[in-house]
Specification:
Elements: H1 14-30, H2 34-56, E1 60-61, E2 67-77, E3 85-91, H3 97-108, H4 113-119, H5 144-167
Antiparallel strand pairs: 1-2, 2-3
Length: about 170
């Protein structure tokens, strides 16, 4: 199953989903289910990043119930106005590009608050080259070292989210 579209009636619980995917990934790794472990580690990290962006770095749900942040925007054609472009926030999508959104927003805020905490995580994208489609592979392309690196990255994101919560730097309740 690919990353699903959040329900239109219930806001996504990114932090809870991150912890659940992480626990499932650890169980899969212990059972030597490398493909599933890597897939779930990626989903755990993705949900962890979205939890950080939503809870501590100002991202908000748009009308489609997807996260956006004005600090991650691009020029796009304006609907109904041919030839006119507007600065439009991008939806936070999926790994590995989602890591770049976290990097962009956290770097802009590294001078204080939660941004400083999260900049410690983002020096190198541990999911560069990771693809959710890896779940379809035959298992030869995913190494134990990659699974370990992805599990550690997911754990670090969850821990950073929890630490920021303890420090009380939420951008919303």
């Amino acid at each position: 199953m690919t990353a699903s579209t959040p329900s239109a009636t219930q806001p996504p619980a990114f932090a809870t989903a991150s912890r659940n995917h992480y626990r499932a990934a650890v169980l899969a790794a212990k059972e030597n289910l490398r493909i599933s472990a890597d897939h779930l580690a990626g989903l755990a990290a993705e949900c962890g990043i979205k939890a950080i962006l939503a809870d501590f770095l100002g991202s908000q749900l748009n009308t489609r119930n997807r996260l956006v942040n004005d600090e991650v925007a691009t020029w796009a054609k304006k609907k109904g106005a041919p030839g006119v472009r507007e600065w439009r926030p991008q939806e936070h999508g999926h790994l590995p590009e989602l890591w770049e959104h976290l990097t962009a927003v956290a770097h802009r805020r590294r001078g204080g608050g939660a941004g400083a905490l999260f900049t410690q995580l983002i020096w190198k994208n541990p999911f560069a080259g990771w693809d959710v489609a890896g779940r379809y592979c035959d298992g030869t392309a995913i190494t134990d070292a990659e699974v370990d690196r992805h599990l550690k990255a997911a754990y670090d994101l969850i821990a950073a989210h929890e630490q920021a919560g303890i420090l009380g730097t939420r951008t919303h309740s």
